[in-house]
Write a structure and sequence with these properties.
Strand content: 15-25%
Helix content: 25-40%
Bound molecules: flavin-adenine dinucleotide
CATH topology of one domain: FAD/NAD(P)-binding domain
Structural class: alpha/beta
Shape: globular
Order of helices and strands: EEHEEHHEHEHEEHEEEEEHEEEHEEEHHH
CATH architecture of one domain: 3-Layer(bba) Sandwich
Number of helices: 11
């Protein structure tokens, strides 16, 4: 029997963390952080490190690591959310190059802090492998290879079909791109270890404490985070609620909560691994419009994720990761297509989580000294690394430091909001229906990208 939900497979081995106390009444601190995922915890970590005298409280509605940070695919990648080209237009090529290098370095920063803090997050820096599985996907791979000539910062290498299969024997692979700036991690071990590391630095995490409203500070009065258990007043309040942001008063249409779903096999036997290869433990993705992302886990399983039910009407979010049987079947089908050798492996666990999608599909780090309010998020599916840089950037902004991080293109942006319902729901359903149709046409032999996918790009506003 496949376990369905229970937050995620990543908690199956160690169990959910022991609950921390909830807020017990009104409180005054220097910095309050709403949300204990990677964004909130990295912000707390660097703030506490920069100024140990700061009183810092993290307010979390369930438990630290309950959100995407405890459920993701474990790709610690160097991706700039939403791509680089849009920022070139607004900020110039040189700064975007700096941004890319900063994200490359951030992969190593996460690995270093994990080592320094004694967090065993199953890190393996084997890079990421993006594989084309049909002729239309190969066209997009070639386009990416051409783009890489303009972005040597990625250090990407184009691999032939044979060289691809030598690394990972993906059935039907026609070629791939290898980007070295990526590591496989165990998401829940990272977030659990990080929560413990911030506590060691004197930060208090209040769990089972839902923030319903965040109010700006004004004329000397501090900002306030309102909860059912009391109000927390602070000179600075940072919102780090990502896919759950729509639940906060006044933020309903800021970021669309998009679902991503995953399944994991039982550990595969040595004979199966011999057929598959994958000794480098690269993270793996294809070039489908509704792409899949995979990792080989430290204990020899394959975890594969992709888009299931993309979005629920009215920005509702699921609570425990339960996943529709249809989605489990679809992901299992793709797994078998890619790795026939794993066809007999039991699917042990399925789960889902929400990510935050801004209207322009690009992440943002904002802080306003006049109100004391800041936030970071909207990483779509690429926040595992970016959250660390966001946490360091928020630290600099709160402390009033002008640094290389605070001038990056994602800082202090204004993004338009999503359309009201039912337009929002119809738009997302339509977009993914078109992407799935395009993928099916390309799987059936269409040689070039299906036009319907370009229409979907237009609808999505990417
Ligand atoms: C299935 C899946 C696979 C993914 N795979 C990858 C990947 O491989 N690589 C990658 O880079 N990215 C991936 N992502 C995205 C990545 O996980 C996220 O970008 C990242 O974890 C975001 O961290 P966060 O702290 O901003 O948000 P979250 O981890 O979602 O944390 C937000 C926290 O805020 C709390 N909260 C929300 N509202 C309130 C409130 N009102 N009051 C108090 N607390 C509140 C929540 O309970 C939660 O703990 C994936 C996401 C999913 C769902």
């Amino acid at each position: 029997m496949t376990t369905n939900g229970n937050v995620s497979f990543w908690y199956a081995e160690d169990g959910l963390p022991a609950p921390r106390p909830a807020l017990a009444g009104d409180l005054e601190v220097d910095v309050a952080i709403v949300g204990a995922g990677y964004t909130g915890l990295w912000s707390a970590y660097y703030l506490a490190k920069a100024d140990p005298s700061l009183r810092i409280a993290v307010l979390e509605s369930r438990f630290a690591g309950f959100g995407a940070s405890g459920r993701n695919g474990g790709w610690l990648a160097n991706t700039i959310t939403g791509g680089r080209d849009g920022y070139v237009k607004s900020h110039g090529r040189a700064l975007v190059g700096d941004f890319q290098r900063m994200l490359n370095d951030t992969v190593d920063e996460v690995i270093k802090v994990a080592a320094d803090e004694g967090i065993d997050a199953h890190v393996n820096k084997g890079g990421e492998l993006l594989v084309a599985r049909n002729p239309a996907q190969l066209g997009r791979l070639e386009a990416m290879a051409a783009e890489q000539l303009r972005w040597p910062e990625d250090d990407a290498v184009r691999l032939s079909a044979a060289a691809t299969r030598e690394r990972i024997n993906v059935a039907g692979a026609l070629g791939s791109m290898h980007i070295p700036h990526c590591a496989r991690i165990h998401p829940a071990k990272l977030v659990r270890g990080l929560a413990e590391a911030v506590e060691r630095r004197g930060v208090t995490i209040y769990e089972n404490t839902l923030v319903t409203e965040i109010n700006a500070g004004a004329s000397g009065a501090p900002a306030a985070a309102v909860t059912e258990r009391g109000t927390v007043r602070a000179a600075h309040i940072l919102r780090a609620t990502e896919g759950f942001t729509a639940n906060l008063a006044g933020a309903h249409r800021d970021w669309l909560p998009m679902n991503s779903s995953m399944i994991v096999t039982e550990p595969l036997d040595a004979g199966t691994w011999e057929q598959i290869g994958w000794e480098g433990c690269e993270t793996l993705e294809d070039f489908a419009h509704a792409y899949v992302y995979l990792q080989r886990t430290a204990d020899g399983r394959i975890a594969i994720g992709g888009r299931g039910v993309p979005y629920r009407f009215g920005s509702r979010t699921d609570m425990d990761g339960a996943t529709q049987p249809k989605t489990i079947k679809a992901l299992t089908g793709i797994l078998h297509e890619m790795f026939p050798a794993a066809g007999g492996a039991r699917i042990e666990h399925a789960w889902s989580g929400v990510l935050g999608v801004p209207r322009d599909w690009r992440a943002t780090v904002n802080y306003d000294p006049a109100t004391g309010l800041g936030f970071a998020g909207g990483y779509v599916g690429t926040g595992v690394t970016a959250t660390n840089l966001a946490g360091r950037t928020l630290t600099d902004l709160v402390l009033g430091r002008d640094t290389k991080a605070t001038v990056m293109p994602w800082v202090n942006r204004t993004v338009r909001r999503w359309e009201p319902e039912p337009v929002r729901w119809l738009g997302v359903q339509g977009m993914y229906a078109m992407y799935h149709r395009a993928d099916a046409q390309e799987r059936d032999g269409r040689a070039a990208t299906a036009p319907i996918a370009r229409l979907a790009d237009l609808v999505s506003g990417r």
